[in-house]
Design goal:
4 copies of one chain form a homotetramer.
Chain A lengths: L1 H28 L6 H8 L3 H7 L3 H21 L8 H18 L1 H9 L3 H7 L11 H13 L7 H24 L5 H19 L14
Helix pairs in contact in A: 1-2, 1-4, 2-3, 4-5, 4-6, 4-7, 5-8, 5-9, 5-10, 8-9, 9-10
Chain B binds a DNA duplex (21 and 21 nucleotides) through helix 1, helix 2 and helix 3.
DNA sequence: TATGAATGAGGCTTCATTCAT
DNA sequence: TATGAATGAAGCCTCATTCAT
């Protein structure tokens, strides 16, 4: 079986090569400039060969989207051990998530705006019970439970809270990508406020008062 | 003048026909699948005639975007007079906004995800001082000021709050559009929670406690 | 008949209007940018009406070409009376011709490069006996005969001489138009040399020696 | 390598096929009627395949122009060794040049009337010092220097002379192409006169007298 | 006389995909 | 496994021309 294994491995490498090239093109030119020809050019093969590794262009795109999502999840989990205090963990993770997403705007947009089942498998967050399938939600729920451990909420309440946070973070990232000309300073002002204030409000922590205004 | 008037009316109708067709295509296939050819096919005219009514494809798109924008603004302002109580007004307006946006998903997406200056002129919300240019933000700020009239916040704090709300609403709408297969029930659960709880948290109203859990 | 006459006059005026507009477009944008629509725009009528005055675009073009040629001929004849001395007249006329042609490069090119019989009727210069049809040749032949009146050449010889001059002048103008980036100074150096030396050589006047080199 | 070689050869053949078709179209309809579609039709392939062999339409045109240029240069240089006597060489070369040009009228016209820098690189003849860049001028200057070696002229005078000859030859070729209906007999009469008389006059050889009239 | 609507052909070009080799 | 040739559909757009009014 060694031969077949090696073949499979080589095939896998080629697939990766193609996906990387595609990712680069998307990063540089945007998703609708991606074409089989451009991929072929970049990997220095002929366009036709790509069809040996993927059925068609959509296939490639879907693979790509899922991969992008994986990256973000990985980034998220790096925050898992960051602090004992759940609120700190929540803030760290959110900031991580936002920054990772902003570092690969095209893939993030493409993945998060893609409605194909292949991609939604990874990105869907709104259905009831999504926590069990979606690591980002799962992580948030853990934090939220921890935060409210003295006056426990129902699973359902916690999930809704987490979903609202995910939704809002998504909105922030998306608009920052769209309004790309925004000044850096204002960009970080918004992110800071989101992480330091808004999330905590959504997590049900803050009272009436803003946090002393110093961060504003 | 009757002749000329009738002609003008007919021209306007044709323009509307074209715009409707375009909207439908965007709705079905997404914005980057819109083409002059597809529009022509749908209205059962030759492609060239479209250039009789619009200078070029971008023209059509811009018209479409600004129409979408108008609809939303109209929806918003209908909430203006809805109630004396600012919290109610806030909730009404948000719900209105969300529902209007969801009623024309692809136009909304197209408008809100478009980075061209022409469109951003209407949709940009994140820059400092956006309140002065963006009616949705302006409306939110008015409510927020009213809500906090007993312990006034700075203009800047209020704007940030409003921006966070806009961002979150945008995130919600966007994800609902992407996860279009979501069950209706869950969809309205999320919207209700957003309008009845999340917004109020973001507006700095709610304390630690959820509102009795009745809406969950 | 007064009514019909007036109608005809008005029709003629419209035709002129159209031709003028066409000429202007050709002058500004070059001949292959000429279109019925552009003409219509310029005269502030609808494109269709143009077909009331001309059968088609080619018609317009042909009319235009002949007109351009007429202008040049007119310019030529202004030299007719310039001097008693035939050599001076020859030089004057040639310079006039060249300068008029250079002042309307697009029309000149278009007219002179057009092979349609309608235009050739005016521009053809090479056939035997062309002198009788072509005023430019006729004028040249007159000068040449005058110049050589002491040792008369045959009509045929004179015509050949004139044709060579016409050909050469045409070559000069054409290349100056093509090599439009040429420095002004060099441009006039070439024209001067052509008028002061080359023509005289072709007219059989000069001997071995250049004219003292002062003009070079 | 045989496979690759054969492929390359076939590719070259296809390129030639395309260029020939283009030349034919230009010959029949003029340069601004050339289109990818027409070429495709003529070679009985689909339009898109043409982009497999050339990057774009301009590419094809440029190839065509430079081929035309090469042909002429080759024709010219074949006259280089034709005779010891410089006057004979001058006459031979000129005749060669004219005949080569007339054998590919539309390519010649297209090349010589093209104002794009890419083409002018090859065809520009009027600027001061053009002799150093333009083989045709260079060849002429060599002859002229040789002819006048007993009473040398300045480089500058020689270049002007050569330029006048080039201009006149260009004018002759061009008008022969435009007046394509001219009788063969008259056509050769003009060429003969140009080569046997006019050039020599322009080269500063002939005196007052025509060469015995025998050629007329 | 004059118009606006409409078309079909044609302009360049890019692309996903198939197929023979 | 890999290639190059080839196509047909599609992208945007311009134009000459016709026709009903």
């Amino acid at each position: 079986m060694s031969l077949e294994e090696r073949r499979e491995r080589e095939k896998e490498e080629m697939r990766k090569l193609i996906l990387d090239a595609a990712a680069e093109i998307i990063f540089l030119d945007g998703i609708d400039k991606l074409s089989i020809r451009k991929i072929a050019e970049r990997i220095e093969y002929s366009p036709s060969i790509i069809y040996h590794y993927f059925n068609n262009k959509d296939n490639i795109l879907n693979q790509l989207m899922s991969n992008a999502y994986q990256k973000i999840i990985t980034a998220l989990s790096s925050a898992k051990l960051s602090s004992d205090h759940p609120v700190e963990r929540l803030k760290d993770a959110t900031r991580n998530y936002i920054e990772t997403a902003l570092s690969m705007p095209n893939e993030y947009n493409a993945a998060q705006l893609n409605s194909s089942p292949d991609v939604l498998k990874y990105t869907a967050s709104l259905f009831r019970g999504a926590t069990n399938k979606n690591p980002a939600l799962a992580f948030l729920c853990d934090c939220l439970k921890d935060i409210h451990k003295n006056a426990p909420r129902s699973e359902s309440e916690i999930e809704l809270m987490a979903q609202m946070i995910v939704i809002a973070a998504f909105g922030l990232i998306m608009r920052l990508n769209v309004e790309a000309e925004l000044e850096e300073k204002q960009k970080y002002r918004l992110i800071d406020h989101f992480v330091n204030v808004t999330i905590l409000q959504m997590a049900g922590i803050y009272t009436n008062n803003m946090p002393g205004g110093k961060s504003i």
